[in-house]
Each structure stands twice: as C-alpha cells, then as structure tokens.
Specification:
Helix 3 packs parallel to helix 4. The longest helix is centred in the last third of the chain and has 18 residues. About 35% of the residues are buried. The strands form two sheets. Strands 3-2-1-4-5-6-9 form a seven-stranded mixed sheet. The protein has a two-stranded antiparallel sheet with strand order 7-8. The chain is built from ten helices and nine strands.
Length: about 260
C-alpha cells in the first residue's frame, strides 16, 4: 500500500466541509512529520469557478485562501484531474454526476487503485454512484460515499460500498470525552479516532472492497474509538476524571446506553 504523504487529494467543492476535511488531512500529515506548508500542497480545491489558485485571491472566501496554490487557472474538472494527477478525488460539492466516466477512466489511468469518494448528500446529489464508480473502474476504485449504496457486482465479485459517515466518529469521540470529562475536544482527537476506526476494518471487510466496518458493529467500534480518545485526553492532560480508570474499555462500556427493556 501507499502512505498518506504519497497521496494527492483533489476536492470537487471548496466549501467549509471540503476545507475542513483538508485541514484534518494536513494535520495528519504534520503529525507524521511533514511541514505544514508542504502538507497543504497535498490538498487542492475546485469551486464553481474552477481550480482554487493564487491568481484568484481577490475573489476567494477566507476559508479557501490557505489552499490557493501557485498554478494556472483551470475551469474544467477533467482537465484539473489530467493536470494534477491526483490519487484521490473527494466530492463535497452536491453537484451530481461530476465524477463521470471520463473522470473515472482517467483516474484509473493515473492510479492502480484510485480513491473515489463522492461524499455529497442526499443520494441525488452524489458526484457519482457506487455502481458507476465500480463498474467504470472494473472494480479498481477504492470507493466511499456520503450516501448509502447497495452492493455492486463486477465480474463476479461483490463490492460493498463503505459509507464515509460521521456516525462512525462522533459517538465515540463524544463518549470518550464525556467519560473522562475532557476539558477540550481537539483536532488531534479526530485524527486519533480516524486511526482507530481504520484499525477496526477487518480483512473480511477489505475482501469486499469495503473501507469501513459494518454499521451493524457501530457500538463495538464506537467503544474502541472512545477508549483511544480517552487515552489521548489523559496523555495530553485534558482529562479531569481522576483517578484514571484501570480498565478504560470497561469504564467506557459501563457508560454506554443500552436501549434494552425488560
């Protein structure tokens, strides 16, 4: 596999959702040892007027400014992909069908396993569907979406689309912070949570090309994320629930609501 530092992320959509995701990618790269300025160059944005670049500074909203790189202006998304050659395209624009066959074909030419993440909701606003991305890429795409999609069969293999949804992250982060009475919820906790979520993906999940654990396992996954967040809170001196529990998982599970009635 590859590492985060080797990827180039292209966002279709430059609202605060897109820049927020980019900010967390940058934070992860910095935690891995990359300089912040270099890490920002790994994230590029496309808005309604084209590629976000420095020659457009006079018209850009404040949240886009730090991702305005030195580059010629390009309006067409396919041309942006051709020029920048990203390893991941992330849709946060609510512009349906912008990840068309030409874009997916080009991503497959550039990458052995292109990351195609149409994150816009609802389904009618998704930049492409799971069936489109997986069929056009002949199953090569690493796919995750904001909307739920049914499994897709390509050449006899069933692919289970993962849903890149905050339901995986927020409950565990919140639970961990509440149990240890953390003074702050930090960006680092979000990254810790994402790393722990990735650790919960099994080989069986990967065998179906699914990048997330099943939502049916959300309670177990949330508990593990809560433990990771709680441990981070203690290590950073943010936890105020003292003494620290001897068994953190046990303390987390004891605090979880169980909607079972006699």
């Amino acid at each position: 596999g590859t590492q985060s530092k080797d990827e180039l992320f292209l966002f279709q959509g430059a609202g605060e959702a897109g820049t927020g995701i980019a900010d967390l990618i940058v934070a992860e790269l910095v935690m891995e040892g990359m300089e912040e300025a270099e890490a920002r160059k790994k994230c590029w944005l496309v808005d309604s007027k084209g590629l976000v670049v420095k020659s457009r500074l006079h018209e850009l909203q404040h949240h886009k400014l730090k991702y305005a790189h030195d580059h010629a202006e390009i309006k067409d998304f396919l041309e942006v992909v051709q020029t920048l050659r990203p390893s991941a395209i992330i849709g946060v624009s609510a512009q349906p069908k912008v990840f068309n066959k030409a874009v997916v074909d080009l991503m497959c030419e550039i990458n052995a396993r292109p990351m195609i993440f149409p994150l816009s909701n609802p389904t009618s606003k998704a930049e492409c569907t799971a069936e489109e991305a997986l069929t056009w890429s002949k199953g090569k795409a690493l796919f995750a979406s904001g909307s739920p999609f049914d499994p897709v069969t390509v050449d006899g293999k069933t692919h289970v689309p993962g849903q890149g949804n905050n339901a995986y992250i927020f409950p565990g982060v919140g639970l961990g912070c509440v149990v240890v009475r953390s003074k702050h919820v930090t960006d680092e906790m979000m990254i810790i949570a994402a790393r722990e979520l990735a650790m919960q993906v099994t080989q069986a999940d990967l065998d179906t090309n699914c990048l997330f654990p099943p939502l049916a396992d959300i309670r177990r996954v949330s508990a593990r994320i809560a433990v990771a967040v709680a441990e981070n809170a203690y290590s950073r001196g943010l936890a105020t629930a003292l003494p620290k529990p001897a068994n953190m998982l046990q303390a987390i599970e004891a605090a979880m609501y169980d909607p079972t009635y006699a």
